[in-house]
Design brief:
0% helix; 54% strand; Glycoprotein, Type 4 Pilin; OB fold (Dihydrolipoamide Acetyltransferase, E2P); 4-stranded antiparallel beta sheet; 17 strands; mainly beta
């Protein structure tokens, strides 16, 4: 059991295989390695989590969850083993092998608008496209500065979780 402090709030956390226990409440968790980040699914909700390189992971590290930065402090051992990351799923449609810089759908939905094209220079936080899911419009933003090398979807296309939307290198 470890004490994990995020944004000034402390939690008692323990990892038990594919379950994470937070303040006594159990959450089933799956983790998928998507290259530069991981997709952590808990209770049917997917989170995009970016960790520092393995050799820089320590208490007080900066992590990004759905592009929002957090400082995480860990006092003690979380337990183990941690949920095993899965490779990105393959499949048809826009879903394909993980490409470097691939930005993937975190939820199933329909593409309302595409705001970039191959060759466009983008900055971190620039809106790449709008994805409608559960009657909500979601801005899909670039996680980093780079150049759009591929737009894998078109306006009106239906996508499922894990489909490649755009590739930024």
């Amino acid at each position: 059991m470890a004490k994990v402090t995020i944004g000034g709030r402390a939690y008692e956390v323990e990892v038990r295989g594919d379950t994470v226990v937070v303040d006594g409440k159990e959450f089933p968790v799956t983790v998928r390695n998507d290259g530069a980040y991981m997709t952590v699914n808990s209770g049917g909700v997917a989170y995009r989590v970016q960790l520092p390189p393995a050799d820089q992971r320590e208490s007080g590290m900066q992590v990004a969850v759905d592009y929002r930065p957090f400082t995480v402090e860990i006092d003690g051992r979380l337990g183990g083993p941690a949920p095993r990351p899965q490779k990105a799923a393959g499949g048809g449609g826009a879903q394909r092998a993980a490409a470097k810089g691939a930005i993937r759908a975190q939820i199933a939905g329909r593409i309302l608008s595409v705001r970039v094209k191959p060759g466009d220079a983008v900055k971190a936080g620039d809106v790449l496209l709008i994805l409608e899911a559960m009657k909500m419009e979601n801005e899909i933003k670039s996680p980093a500065e780079g150049t759009v090398t591929e737009v894998a979807v078109a306006e009106g296309a239906k996508v499922t979780e894990g489909d490649t939307l755009v590739v930024v290198e």
